[in-house]
């Protein structure tokens, strides 16, 4: 039998039992839909993370106090106060870290801010004016504080857009004073709406000079992070080494395993997060694949029923000249059409749902989420669907092909 | 050379260790162009014989030559080709595909053949017209009467212009008028078109339309004789 006629014959077989065909297909539809959604969301999450990490600039190096957590038993935060003013001064010296372009200490934490009777939970950033450059923060009203404000421990604050609207509403905020930890801070700048930048939401932030933050808000004499920028992409590694050496010398450490700080580059971060998301995607895809196996068994089951029901038809076809391979192809094609159609529906459904999710994430959650239609996932979906049809359709089809014509014709 | 030649044909069914001997040494030959009726009570082995002759089943022992060639020499592929090109089957229960029009049912054997597709429609029309069902070509079998169904099945058997038509109780499920129509068609196929016809029946009346009657009893040939006063379906219509 030629392929077009084989196709028509198989399609007719499926049409005769429309409801059953649709229900059988459902297993495959669900499986492929799940795979498409998981893959699309996985890719979206990866892109989101990469774009956020890159938002900080690839030359950025972060020094974190404490021992790098290597296992669950590690007490990660035992040296959390290890980054001091002295370290900052040492790192700033060209002789110690020649490839360091700039360095900024940073402190952060949550604190309540008040204006009149309004209060709001702020994310306090104690930083140097460099934060403006590094995180691309430029006030839409007023200015950022400068290095004199830092040196003089001045009580000035730059607030995020959400902070402005929560505390002041539509009233002007510039020049007004916010009370944080019992101290008044003069608002000198208001940031535009930014959404999420890297892992921070500056809309809810109050940025103050790090000197002021350490002294009056947090009451600590150490820093939460050093943010360092290397002179060039090529010098990142060297900068990391020099920073480590300088800090070890400063802290009197000889064994690198005993470090009371660790250094993270943006590349490390991106890699680590990438591994997490791709592992997660793989795991979820495997879960979705299980539903495909279940769907495939459903198809096998129904095809076996169909072969038994159509025993007489098989006998007749053999009596009028069908060869074993004609019957085999007919039933195999029926199973494959079922799974391919299921796969196609699954792809459309999965794509639509992922698109819906991306709309929700961008519009409602405010994430910089990009919907990605993945051709690879589409072909994978169709390929897997066809494979399921062939694998699970083969046994029933062979059963049909091997029926003796006379036993098939006699079947009641 | 005879078209069909069987010698000492035996067939034993083994069903869960209980052996049933359906044919116990049957020998005869049929020439091309004959109209042979095989008769016998149920269980006499007539259906088994037809299945072996129609290459739907294999004998347990003995020999069967078709056109001088032993059936042991045919590969499964060749058997399929033979059933498609040389043999036509008409069954008691019609065996038409449901939800498929008369036209598509009759056309079915062409799909398994080497006949070029350009000729399919013409051949199908010719076959359907020859059994007088052209006005019913778009109907599905469920919309047809028993006689119409059997005529559609005959058209399907004819479409490949086979050498032999095997008819297994073709009138068994039909009323007498439809049965006569079917017999008339079979007789015409034999006389006008020269088809060899092998008919199975348990009714003497139906068997007398043939030129020769082979009677089976308990898997053996009881008698094999020519019909002296042959019935013609047309005559019956006149009466």
Itemize the secondary structure elements and their pairings.
The complex is a heterodimer of chains A (412) and B (239).
Chain A (H helix, E strand, L loop, with lengths): L2 H14 L1 H38 L4 E6 L19 H8 L7 E16 L2 E10 L2 H5 L6 E2 L4 H5 L4 E4 L1 H8 L8 E4 L2 E8 L5 E2 L2 E2 L3 E5 H9 L6 E6 L5 H16 L9 E5 H44 L1 H9 L4 H40 L11 H27 L3 H6 L2
Parallel strand pairs in A: 3-10, 5-7
Antiparallel strand pairs in A: 1-11, 1-12, 2-3, 2-6, 2-11, 4-7, 5-10, 6-7, 8-9
Chain B lengths: L3 E12 L2 E13 L4 E5 L6 H8 L7 E6 L2 E2 L5 H10 L1 E4 L11 H10 L8 H11 L15 H13 L5 E5 L7 H16 L4 E6 L2 H4 L4 E6 L2 E7 L6 H6 L1
Parallel strand pairs in B: 3-8, 3-9, 6-7, 7-8
Antiparallel strand pairs in B: 1-2, 1-4, 4-5, 9-10
Can you walk through the features of this model?
The complex is a heterodimer of chains A (about 400) and B (about 240). With about 400 residues, chain A is α+β, with helices and mostly antiparallel strands. Chain A has 2 domains: about 5-55 and about 270-410, no CATH class; about 60-265, no CATH class. Chain A contains 13 helices and 12 strands. Chain A has helices at about 5-15, 20-55, 85-90, 130-135, 145-150, 160-170, 210-220, 235-250, 265-310, 310-320, 325-365, 375-400, 405-410; strands at about 60-65, 100-115, 120-125, 140, 155-160, 175-180, 185-190, 195, 200, 205-210, 225-230, 260-265. In chain A, helix 2 (about 20-55) crosses helix 11 (about 325-365), helix 9 (about 265-310) packs antiparallel against helix 11 (about 325-365) and helix 11 (about 325-365) packs antiparallel against helix 12 (about 375-400). The mean pLDDT of chain A is about 85. Chain B is α/β, with parallel strands linked by helices and about 240 residues long. Helices cover about 35% and strands about 30% of the residues of chain B. In chain B, the strands form 2 sheets. Chain B has a 6-stranded mixed beta sheet, sandwiched between helices. A 4-stranded antiparallel beta sheet of chain B has the order 2-1-4-5, covered by helices on one side. Chain B is globular, with a radius of gyration of 18 Å.
């Amino acid at each position: 039998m030629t392929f077009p006629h084989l196709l028509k014959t198989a399609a007719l077989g499926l049409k005769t039992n429309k409801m059953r065909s649709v229900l059988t297909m459902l297993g495959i539809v669900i499986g492929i839909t799940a795979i498409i959604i998981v893959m699309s969301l996985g890719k979206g999450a990866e892109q989101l993370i990469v774009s956020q990490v890159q938002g900080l600039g690839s030359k950025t190096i972060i020094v974190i106090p404490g021992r790098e957590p290597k296992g669950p038993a590690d007490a990660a935060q035992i040296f959390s106060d290890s980054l001091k003013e002295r370290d900052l001064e040492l790192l700033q010296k060209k002789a110690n870290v020649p490839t360091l372009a700039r360095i900024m200490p940073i402190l952060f934490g949550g604190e309540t801010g008040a204006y009149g009777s309004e209060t709001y939970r702020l994310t306090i950033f104690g930083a140097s004016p460099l934060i403006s450059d590094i995180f691309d923060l430029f006030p839409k009203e007023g200015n950022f504080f400068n290095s004199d404000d830092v040196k003089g421990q001045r009580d000035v604050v730059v607030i995020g857009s959400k902070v402005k609207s929560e505390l002041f509403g539509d009233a002007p905020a510039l020049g007004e004073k916010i009370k944080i930890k019992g101290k008044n801070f003069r608002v000198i700048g208001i940031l535009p709406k930014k959404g999420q930048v890297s892992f921070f939401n500056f809309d809810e932030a109050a940025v103050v000079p790090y000197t002021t933050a350490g002294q009056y808000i947090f009451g600590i004499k150490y820093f939460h992070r050093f943010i360092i920028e290397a002179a060039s992409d090529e010098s990142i590694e060297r900068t990391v080494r020099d920073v480590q050496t300088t800090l070890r010398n400063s802290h009197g450490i000889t064994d690198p395993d005993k470090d009371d700080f660790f250094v993270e580059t943006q590349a490390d971060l991106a890699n680590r997060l990438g591994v997490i998301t791709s592992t997660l995607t793989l795991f979820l895809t495997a879960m979705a694949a299980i539903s495909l196996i279940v769907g495939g068994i459903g198809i096998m089951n129904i095809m076996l029923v169909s072969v038994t029901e159509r025993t007489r038809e098989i006998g007749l076809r053999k009596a009028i000249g069908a060869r074993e391979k004609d019957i085999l192809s007919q039933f195999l094609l029926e199973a494959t059409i079922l799974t391919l159609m299921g796969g196609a529906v699954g792809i459309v459904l999965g794509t639509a749902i992922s698109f819906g999710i991306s709309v929700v994430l961008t519009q409602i959650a405010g994430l910089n989420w990009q919907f990605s239609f993945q051709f690879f996932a589409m072909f994978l979906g169709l390929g897997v669907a066809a494979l399921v049809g062939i694998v699970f359709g083969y046994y029933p089809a062979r059963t049909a092909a091997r029926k003796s014509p006379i036993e098939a014709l006699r079947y009641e | 050379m005879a078209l069909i030649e069987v010698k000492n044909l035996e067939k034993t069914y083994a069903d869960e260790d209980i052996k049933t001997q359906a044919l116990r040494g049957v020998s005869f030959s049929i020439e091309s162009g004959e109209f042979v009726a095989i008769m016998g009570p149920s269980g006499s082995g007539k259906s088994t014989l037809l299945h072996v002759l129609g290459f739907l089943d294999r004998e347990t022992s003995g020999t069967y030559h078709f056109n001088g060639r032993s059936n042991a020499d045919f590969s499964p592929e060749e058997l399929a080709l033979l059933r498609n090109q040389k043999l036509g089957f008409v069954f008691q229960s019609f065996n038409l595909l449901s939800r498929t029009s008369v036209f598509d049912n009759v056309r079915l054997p062409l799909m398994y053949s080497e006949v070029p597709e350009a000729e399919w429609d013409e051949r199908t029309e010719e076959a359907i017209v020859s059994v007088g069902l052209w006005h019913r070509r778009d109907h599905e079998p469920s919309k047809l009467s028993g006689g119409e169904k059997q005529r559609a099945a005959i058209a399907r058997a004819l479409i490949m212009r086979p050498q032999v038509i095997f008819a297994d109780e073709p009138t068994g499920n039909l009323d007498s008028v439809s049965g006569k129509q079917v017999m008339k068609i079979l007789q015409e196929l034999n006389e006008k078109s020269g088809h060899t016809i092998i008919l199975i029946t348990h009714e003497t009346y139906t068997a007398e339309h043939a030129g020769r009657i082979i009677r089976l009893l308990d898997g053996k040939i009881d008698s094999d004789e020519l019909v002296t006063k042959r019935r013609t379906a047309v005559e019956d219509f006149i009466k």
